[in-house]
Design the sequence.
């Protein structure tokens, strides 16, 4: 058992530090015994970063749920909540059943056999490991790494649910979620964070503008194209706005996502056990916040200029755009550069939303501009502040992950469509998914205007 | 003063490590000087765990408030918010006035006299203690322990408020809260966590499936029986559903509770100053999350099968059921076992809710199935994964705590009923507690459907 | 560059520890090498406190947004959300552009020139600093300090937005926000926390009852006087209540603020790298919570006595009043004293709200009683528990900060009024700011009662 675990974790060790700061993380592990922070303390602090980062990113599931529940019409709100809770539940289960092993693939499978993590200690270390045994576990607890990585995987699915809201059937959506979180995301993420060929090619994506956000965005785009727009959304050349039913919820969701992003980006430093690492985490927190601010303010000003009125939903999506844009490289920019990277993200969102409408791609919450387009922008923007980045490698990573995710997602959506249908009936869509598929309303006492 | 404080804290020290991991926690304290993590660092890290765990569990008070406000009808929403804020305020005050000393009883009372914690340093250590003086405080700051323990006490009262919503008078409810948080919970909790006879009997309850959740559930059940169901809820053999007025709030509350539970269970490790402890906290985070996922998914599938439609409120209560179920032992299960323990919790909720209705026990938010029944299930489930657990000891603890809480709570409710009445008038109940008892509405501008 | 940074940070170092516990924080730095916690670990733990405190205080921006969105009428809700997101975004940008350097003024400006922090490393340390280089950065990462301090600055602006809701134009409000967060707050805060003359005079304000909350309150009061009350609020001698549209949101906002306050006060200890510091943080958490509880319970009881009915909005504001009241000194009080300090805050709010109405000062959310009046009360209350405080110095600080903020804010409001007007037209106010300035509604589907 010990040997097996060790192998599994050796693989994890190999894989983990490659997220952004491979060299430094490795240095920490080696240098620690001689440095002023004792090795065990380093282990504890690194683990603590994963735990804090993990619960912050967990809370993003709530943020997505609130954002999406606020931006759909009230007849689909309960369904949107159901999907968000259910997708997180399924991601939590299928990521340990399949995804985590697939993402860090060298270890447990070959030796333990399929699904070893379920019953054996494949994923989590044994109860009460001693400091000696911890040498097997490298520089942080595997359990904390699993917890942290899971939350990234679940975020991918949360992105999809927003775009496809108000017309997709519950169960096909959940089956897609299972495939996304157990296979599509882990496979493509392993190419970068599992020590795969994109990592070897010099592709840089610190916390996942491409690996997480664009993957969610591509999967959502494939779904939106196959699913088609909501009834009445595009009448000939006219675009009918379907205003969100509850903008306070959308605001709440945005603030929660903003909060969670400190864990998303800060935790991706993967180490907090040295002065250099904790100072870097501090830079990341500051830059992440500043980029969100840049995105929100840019969207505010641009909508005022373009439309003569500020637009709250654009400001919210602008903040999220800033967050996605800085995610590929939250460490190296100065505060000024981070503001500009985020501001460009905010501008992208304001400009891309009408383009999608022109193309009759119906994205209920704006997840494609925010997560896909700004994910691409953020990945490219790495080259402006990180001297280790090459434009070619960034484009290579964007294209490879994009093609893979879009094609495989599209195939899965097409198969689901053929087998069971993915869209509710016209009557159900008009009545709302809440009454049709759940038999309940989110706000049963409030009459509709 | 110093001596007194020392005695009080010696008692606390004796009592604290007995929560679940007595042996290990004790080892940490002794082994630390020789280990690689310096003693002072251990003290800081343990204290930090209490503080982080504490603020996460604090946030559960918000989660309960949102869950309950979402599941009552709109005419009672402002009152439900009022009760939740007020109960937390009263718990915060009465737990330090009486409860905390009662729960860890060896020290301060006898020497300082009654209510010594109020003005003296009985509860909190002096400002700016030195590292030397910290030896008196054992392995973590008493102030942080008090903060953490208080949040558990308050959670008990939050559970009660949900069951009795929409018909109980404000002030009798608050008086009950005072008695629950200053006496009932601390006394029964002391039997396990204060180093009492249940602890000596080998009863295991890591973070409180029985000690916290069932206690809340028993108190709620006693109240529900004495208070009776809401008007019109049970017409002869028919059960009339009173749908919750705001399911996004209920979803928000569930996510917040889920978040807070990482602190609830993870903080109950009571130590983070060694590799073994922090790895265990990581296991606990992962298992807690997985169990909630299991509960949510099981409830989703079961309602789809039983009723032909998924049910959002059941999915939410399923997640909470998973959380309660894993609380008695979040450390020893594998991820697969945690999923199953949570899934059984989710199934229990779906099955028990209609049983309560058949018995005409009106539990507005489903707190009895979630906290009481799953609290019992979780306490029994310890025997499946923890070799130190005995079925007999678990049943013994469940019965002792249950009989005590149910009987004493029932007596308090009966006395309150006799003295001041606990139920609002029929007119007030029909009009809603908001207008009747507060003279305000939660949503004054939204007309009722 | 190194030298410059060092100077900048030396200034920060000089300035920082003066917040409340100058002596102790300084001791930590000096004593650390010899003590049991290694210097690097101290640096990491101090930084971690800023990061955790910072994200908690960040979340207060969400709390303010929810509180205010819940307390305005539904026709102004989307605007209130817009203002809260936008003000936070602007504060984030302008605090690093101007404010932070102005607040800790000795360093970067003189040498780097204006706006040096934008592109250079003036604010954040370089990527991957080594432990040796960290000596330049003193006892914690500057990036984490910036992140933490920014959140305090932003809170000041959040306070203003509540008072002036439902009638102020978006852009003049945002311009005021820029001036407040880049100049007014940083200048007055530097007098205390930047090592200025108020600090030298012995003025004590641990986490900012005066420096943050009263500053926000004074700026709001100046604005309210110049802006005038909402249409129809005061008809002759009659006060017309305009009930908040969504009290669950207000409750949510209060709980979030309460949560964030643990970071606000606890983080203001500024150090967690010693047994004494972490024990003090624990005291602060406990006292902060207890004071909020005291405020909520006092407001509950007082409204029941005065009006015969409990009042939810008063209970919420009572909790916030307790939090503001304890902010000037959350460390030295016992739990009993903290309860009383908070309770007096809660009583103040209940009594001051009608006084403001009598004066026809229209404060939509009660921010003036909560943040200004209780900020003053809390600053005075320091003398009751902290032997180092002098009544004269406290009054001196209150008056100096008050006069400066009120006069400068008033001038800015008057200039804005003269240049561009600060109030929407009568028609727009009646129609609601959401349709008038944003062209959207927060709850478009819910008909108004």
Sequence:
């Amino acid at each position: 058992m010990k040997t097996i675990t060790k192998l599994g974790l050796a693989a994890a060790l190999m894989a983990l530090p490659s997220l952004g700061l491979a060299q430094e993380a490795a240095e920490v592990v080696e240098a620690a015994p001689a440095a002023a922070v004792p090795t065990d303390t380093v282990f504890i602090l690194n683990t603590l970063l994963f735990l804090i980062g993990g619960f912050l990113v967990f809370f993003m599931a709530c943020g997505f749920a609130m954002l999406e529940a606020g931006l759909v019409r009230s007849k689909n709100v309960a369904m949107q909540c159901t999907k968000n809770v259910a997708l997180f539940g399924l991601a939590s289960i299928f990521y340990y059943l399949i995804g985590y092993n697939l993402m860090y693939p060298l270890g447990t499978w070959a030796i333990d056999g399929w699904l070893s993590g379920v019953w054996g200690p494949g994923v989590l270390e044994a109860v009460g490991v001693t400091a000696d045994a911890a040498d097997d576990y490298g520089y942080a607890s595997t359990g904390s790494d699993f917890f942290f990585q899971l939350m990234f995987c679940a975020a991918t699915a949360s992105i999809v649910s927003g775009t496809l809201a108000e017309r997709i059937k519950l169960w096909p959506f959940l089956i897609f979620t299972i495939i996304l979180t157990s296979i599509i995301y882990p496979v493509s993420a392993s190419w970068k964070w599992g020590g795969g060929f994109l990592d070897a090619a010099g592709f840089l994506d610190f916390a996942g503008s491409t690996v997480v956000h664009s993957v969610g965005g591509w999967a959502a785009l494939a779904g939106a194209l196959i699913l088609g727009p909501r009834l009445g959304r595009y009448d000939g050349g006219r675009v009918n706005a379907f205003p969100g039913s509850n903008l306070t919820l959308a605001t709440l969701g945005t603030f929660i996502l903003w909060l969670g992003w400190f864990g998303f980006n800060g935790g991706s430093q993967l180490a907090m056990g040295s002065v250099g690492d904790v100072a870097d985490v501090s830079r990341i927190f500051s830059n992440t916040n500043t980029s969100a601010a840049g995105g929100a303010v840019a969207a505010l000003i641009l909508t005022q200029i373009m439309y003569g009125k500020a637009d709250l939903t654009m400001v919210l999506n602008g903040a999220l755009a800033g967050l996605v844009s800085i995610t590929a490289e939250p460490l190296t920019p100065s505060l000024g550069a981070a503001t500009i990277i985020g501001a460009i993200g905010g501008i992208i969102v304001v400009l891309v939303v009408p383009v999608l409408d022109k193309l009759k791609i119906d994205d209920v919450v704006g997840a494609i501009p925010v997560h896909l387009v700004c994910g691409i922008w953020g990945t490219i923007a790495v080259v402006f502040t990180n001297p280790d980045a090459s434009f070619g490698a960034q484009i290579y990573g964007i294209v490879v992950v994009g093609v893979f995710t879009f094609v495989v997602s599209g195939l899965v959506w097409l198969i689901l469509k053929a087998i069971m249908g993915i869209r509710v009936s016209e009557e159900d869509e008009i009545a709302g998914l809440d009454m049709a598929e759940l038999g309940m309303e989110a706000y049963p006492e409030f009459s509709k205007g």
About this structure: The longest helix of chain B spans residues 39-71. The longest strand of chain B covers residues 234-235.
